[in-house]
Amino acid sequence: MLAELRVVDDVTEAWVAEFVAACHHAVADRGRFVVALAGGGTPLSGYRRLGERLDVPWERLWVGWGDERDVPRDHPDRNERAAREAWLDRVPIPANQVLGWPRSDSPEAAARGYAAALVAALGDPPVWDLVLLGLGADAHTASLFPGTGATGASGTTTVVRPASDGPARLSLTAAALSRAREAWVLVTGQEKREALRRTLEAGLLATPTGDPEALPLLAVRPRERYLVFADRAAGEGLAPGDG
Q: Which fold has domain 2-235?
């Protein structure tokens, strides 16, 4: 597995350029580009830029989400709603190729339904070309929160109930995320710096030596490439030879 930390001036510019190149490569090589999106605020500026691109074979893109809040589809906190408004509804992706988490009678039923939908669309087991991930100040990624046991979940999807108040979280498991060919982590802001430092020092881009229960990114091991895009506030001085 190739692994790299890139400390850049503009995380959005860096990952969007890499995304477009990866999309063209995947379509040429395999006929489609299958991506699990990240939620939260960090990727939204990139989604807006992608929504303006005319040089991408959007009809060959398949999109899902690495995690979701168990809230109605029109809820403002819904990851799917944010990505649709910023990007997906602005480009000609076929509707059946946008794989949102379902709503159901319970979070557990929604998680099972999503796993079944992914198998139907992507194969058994589902394999992603790329998963986009974020990193919280508490070191969580997707909805794999420290101290919840989420990184040890089996299967494709899991339900996570963080200690903080709020709705249940629906997430791909670390095992499912690890079936991706590539994983890219987008990190911005000084408040994320300590979590990134701890995760890197625990072997994220080499051989993990830390505890995934404390640092969930350590449980995600993509098949081919791990990239971390960090702005200078989050990552300066953390790359070998940097600073």
A: Rossmann fold (3.40.50)
DSSP 45-70: HHHHHHTT-SSS-GGGEEEEESEEES
**Residue type present at position 167:** P
The amino acid sitting at 57 is P
What is the residue extent of each domain of the chain?
Answer: 2-235
Beta strands, E only, the chain: 2-8, 33-37, 61-65, 67-69, 98-99, 130-134, 157-160, 169-172, 182-187, 225-231
- Report CA-CA distances (Å) from 187 to 15, 139, 175: 11, 11, 22
The pTM (predicted TM-score) of the whole model is 0.96
pLDDT by 10s per residue, the chain, length 243: 999 999 999 999 999 999 999 999 999 999 999 999 999 999 999 999 999 999 999 999 999 999 999 999 999 999 999 999 999 999 999 999 999 999 999 999 999 999 999 999 999 999 999 999 999 999 999 999 999 999 999 999 999 998 877 899 999 999 999 999 999 999 999 999 999 999 999 999 999 999 999 999 999 999 999 999 999 999 999 976 454
Residue 118's Cα: distance from chain center in Å?
16
**The pair of three-digit structure tokens given for residue 166, joined into one six-digit string:** 């709020």
Bridge partners (DSSP) listed for residue 169: 69, 160
Which candidate, 135, 158, 138, places its Cα nearest to that of 217?
Answer: 135
CA proximity to 77, closest of 157, 166, 172, 164: 166
Structure-token pair, residue 167:
């709705």
What does the DSSP 8-state code read for residue 205? T
207 class by beta-carbon count within 10 Å (0-12 exposed, 13-18 middle, 19+ buried):
exposed
